Amino acid sequence: MIDVLAISWSGILLAYGVFIMGMFSPGPNILSIIGTSMSVGRNEGRSLALGIASGSLLWGLLAWAGLTTVLVTYASFMAVIKFVGAIYLLWLAFKSFRSAASARQINVKALALPGNGLAYFRRGLLIQMTNPKAALTWTATVSLGLATDAPWWVGGIIVAGTTVISLAGHLTYALAFSTQPVIRTFFAARCWIETGLGVFFCVASYKLATSRL
Q1: Number of other CB atoms surrounding residue 110 within 10 Å
Q2: How many domains does the chain have?
Q3: Which tens digits make up the pLDDT trace of 30-73?
């Protein structure tokens, strides 16, 4: 087990890196947390973040189960999955570079919901589970650490680690974006952040396309 983990560790770390970088690229989930924390309140943003993180766990489990089934049944099909994942990462790189070159401001949307934190938790879960980007991101992330000879628990390590990252990252957004200094700093540095994301996604795409099956 230790030898297999040592061999798979570079792919696992790359998967973690892609997931972390993806959290810096604002999508519907991140923008809803930012907007809610800024305009409604920290507690509401935190409940929304917990719902989104729970959705991330569900997507991770689905991707893990699906890719493991593919490896067991149709090992040769993994090449197609990795190719699609590499193309998707290139698309994320393109979007990051385009966003960095654009002077357009990011539009955030606050969610004003009736009821307590449970309503925001449910909305966060719904946002994440109906986000098509989440499905593609999880497929690309999990496939980074999997090979045809990888044991089933390698995917479990990826899902467990990225779930912790998702929980910590989304809660950080909820807490940080309830303060004006962080908001101003983030948007001032957005160009550099998006450029760095574009470079990282290009590297990850190359790694995935050239990784062993």
Answers
A1: 17
A2: 1
A3: 778 888 887 777 888 889 899 999 988 998 888 888 777 766 66
Cα–Cα distance for residue pair 162/141, rounded to 1 Å? 9
Type of residue numbered 11: G
Domain carrying residue 26:
2-102+111-210
CA 194 to centroid of chain Cα atoms:
15
The secondary structure of the chain, three-state, reads: CHHHHHHHHHHHHHHHHHHHHHHHCCCHHHHHHHHHHHHCCHHHHHHHHHHHHHHHHHHHHHHHHHHHHHHHHCHHHHHHHHHHHHHHHHHHHHHHHHHHHCCCCCCCCCCCCCCCHHHHHHHHHHHHHCCHHHHHHHHHHHHHCCCCCCCHHHHHHHHHHHHHHHHHHHHHHHHHCCCHHHHHHHHHCHHHHHHHHHHHHHHHHHHHHHCCC
State pLDDT tens for residues 156-198.
888 899 889 989 988 888 888 777 777 677 777 778 878 888 8
Contact call for residues 171 and 34 (beta carbons, < 8 A): no
